[in-house]
Design brief:
This protein has helices at about 15-25, 25-35, 45-55, 60-70, 85-100, 120-125, 145-150, 175-185, 200-215, 235-250, 260-275, 305-320, and strands at about 75-80, 105-110, 130-135, 155-160, 170, 190-195, 225-230, 255-260, 285, 300-305, 330, 335-340. The strands form two sheets. It has a six-stranded parallel β-sheet, with helices on both faces. A six-stranded mixed β-sheet has the order 7-6-8-9-10-12, with helices on both faces. The termini are far apart. It contains twelve helices and twelve strands. α8 (about 175-185) runs parallel beside α9 and α10 (about 235-250) crosses α11 (about 260-275). It folds into three domains: about 15-70, 434 Repressor (Amino-terminal Domain); about 75-170 and about 310-330, 3-Layer(aba) Sandwich (Rossmann fold); about 175-305, 3-Layer(aba) Sandwich (Rossmann fold), CATH 3.40.50. About 45% of the residues are buried.
């Protein structure tokens, strides 16, 4: 009697680990067989068991094998932390300007380290869907990123650095903070706060370090109650504003440099709800120049950080890595620039 086809229910995504479990093998063995990798061939009986399980479960064997049979260098993954953040669209444009010319495809995938499941973006690696990855989600000590890098798989970090990963491309974040502080001081501000990025992310640490150095160079105090940490989202910016209000009480700063565009929008919203007007009571500068900045209320003064350029450099580095060339930690040479709009003004007398 023929064995009944045991496909999964419609709509369910079949993962590599599901095939491996049904075939009674480990994930790496299933991956090698399904990718057609003969460097460490499996026994014929094991191979047939894996292929049968994949066929019965509706796993797309052919789509995986095809990428290995064609040019071997066909697609790269771009791993971003938040698809709602328009800044990542700018980075993607830079990446695509390089990959289009080189004839590569880009697979974009959202990954939030605090919500990681057993298999996140690393499934692109394990299933052989990409030949390399550009990762914008790495924390300073990121086990997943370190594991992929240690395996020898081509990986380049963008806008982040992480322990043990040699290839990275970042912007001059400390200089961006210095430009913001300099503008505040020229306007007459001396009471300046900073809404920093997450403490476990290299970008946030470098922007905070730049803020501290810029304040110190001008003889201005950095007050602990005027430093708050937050994620790069609008909701997190609102939370950060409420924390700043609670810590400062009636002794509020007259200017705030926010390390993220979206959290800056949330910050202003919460300040308005608390009765503060921007820029009449508090001036605000946010990192990253986006087209949306001209249409907020008030229009945002920003620090242009050349996101698209970073995407170009990161993509070229990954293609070099795939070609067997060494990689390094790069800070792009383009300097951050101030874009003045309506969210900054001299402090009230």
């Amino acid at each position: 009697m023929a064995r009944k086809d045991q496909r999964n229910s419609p709509g369910k995504v079949v993962l590599l680990r599901d095939v491996a479990r049904r075939a009674g093998v480990d994930t790496s063995t299933a991956s090698r067989v399904l990718r057609g990798d003969e460097r460490k061939p499996a026994k014929q009986e094991t191979r047939e068991r894996i292929l049968t399980a994949a066929r019965e479960m509706g796993y797309h064997v052919n789509s995986v094998a095809r990428s290995l049979r064609t040019r071997q260098r066909e697609a790269i993954g771009l791993i971003i932390p938040d698809a709602a953040n328009p800044g990542f669209a700018e980075i993607f444009r830079g990446v695509q300007s390089v990959t289009d010319v080189a004839g590569w495809h880009v697979i974009v995938m959202e990954d939030r380290p605090d919500h990681r499941q057993e298999l996140g973006w690393d499934r692109l690696v394990l299933e052989g869907r990409v030949d390399g990855v550009l990762v914008l989600t790495a924390t300073i000590r990121d086990k997943l990123v370190r594991g992929v890098a240690d395996s020898g798989f081509p990986i380049v970090l963008m806008n982040r650095r992480s322990t043990g990963v040699p290839g990275s491309v970042v912007m001059n974040d400390p200089k961006g903070s210095e430009v913001a502080v300099s503008h505040f001081v020229k306007l007459g501000h001396r009471r300046i706060a900073h809404v920093a990025g997450p403490s476990n992310v290299d970008t946030g640490q470098r922007r905070l370090a730049g803020f501290r150095d810029a304040m110190k160079a001008r003889g201005l105090p950095v007050r602990d109650e005027w430093i708050v940490y937050t994620n790069y989202t609008e909701a997190a910016g609102e939370v950060a504003a409420r924390e700043l209000l609670a810590k400062a009480g009636n002794d509020m700063p007259t200017a705030i440099y926010c390390a993220s565009f979206l959290s800056g929008i949330g910050l202003i919203k919460a300040l308005n709800e608390a009765g503060y007007s921007v820029p009449r009571d508090i001036s605000v500068i946010v990192s990253d120049e986006l087209a949306l900045a001209a249409h907020t209320s008030p229009p945002l003064t920003t620090i242009r950080m050349h996101l698209s350029r970073m995407g170009e450099v990161g993509a070229r580095m990954l293609l070099d890595r795939l070609a067997g060339k060494p990689v390094s930690a790069i800070v792009i040479p383009e300097m951050p620039e101030l874009v003045i709009r309506g969210s900054t003004a001299p402090p009230r007398a």
